[in-house]
Amino acid sequence: MFYLTRDGSGLPRDPFSAIVSPRPIAWISTRGSSGATNLAPYSFFNAVAYTPPQVIVSSIGGKSDRDKGKDSYSHILETGVFCINIAGLADRDALNASSAPYAADQSEFEVLGLPMAECETIDCPRLAHAPASMECRLTQPIDLEGEGNLMILARVEAIHLRDDCLTEDGRFDVLSYAPLSRLGYQDFAAIETVFQMRRPKL
């Protein structure tokens, strides 16, 4: 099968997001200039550099109670900061529930009864029990091609690691919490198998 993306695949569902998978999920927590807090998952997310550590997150679409983008995007533009929390298999239901279109003044932390803690270097909440959380500072907002497609580039200022996710030899053990990833359609996956391959030397 071959198709031009401008023409569509002719399949019942667009396979694009299933092809580009698995994708890590940024469970983003924010606090807006009004003090309102928000927590929402974004699967167009990845790390893009080591030094300094940098990430990208994209948001698609918008909300009727926002001029541009969704609550997370609006908060990030207002304050310039946000926190990326990493979710494990145990949080799959809460992560999915936090994707509902709650009103701009509703806090997913409160609605879903999720424990909140304060970040150390930025004025932003984080998910208290997350295996890892990254305190991020916005460096560049980018309007992408297509209506409602927005991207942010950010620098990671600080990282929280849950103690039980660290091994005795100092490795961050993803198998201890089975990180969630997004596949296509309504499909998710959890990492439960890890293997090593060393980069070859010529």
Output the keywords.
202 residues, mainly beta, Pnp Oxidase, Chain A, seven-stranded antiparallel beta sheet, three-stranded antiparallel beta sheet, 4 helices, 12% helix, 34% strand, globular, Flavin_Rdtase-like_dom, Split_barrel_FMN-bd, Flavin reductase like domain-containing protein, oxidoreductase activity, acting on the CH-NH group of donors, NAD or NADP as acceptor, FMN binding
Structural description of this entry:
By secondary structure, the protein is mostly beta strands. It has one domain (22-183): Pnp Oxidase, Chain A (Roll), CATH 2.30.110.10. Helix content is 12%, strand content 34%. It has 4 helices and 12 strands. It has helices at residues 16-19, 71-79, 92-97, 108-112; strands at residues 23-24, 26-31, 37-42, 45-49, 54-60, 81-86, 116-118, 125-127, 132-143, 149-161, 180-182, 188-190. The protein has a 7-stranded antiparallel β-sheet, with helices on one face. A 3-stranded antiparallel β-sheet has the order 1-11-12, with no helix packed on it. β11 and β12 form a beta hairpin. The longest helix has 9 residues, at 71-79. Residues 20-174 form the Flavin reductase like domain. GO terms for molecular function: FMN binding; oxidoreductase activity, acting on the CH-NH group of donors, NAD or NADP as acceptor. It holds the Pfam family Flavin_Reduct.
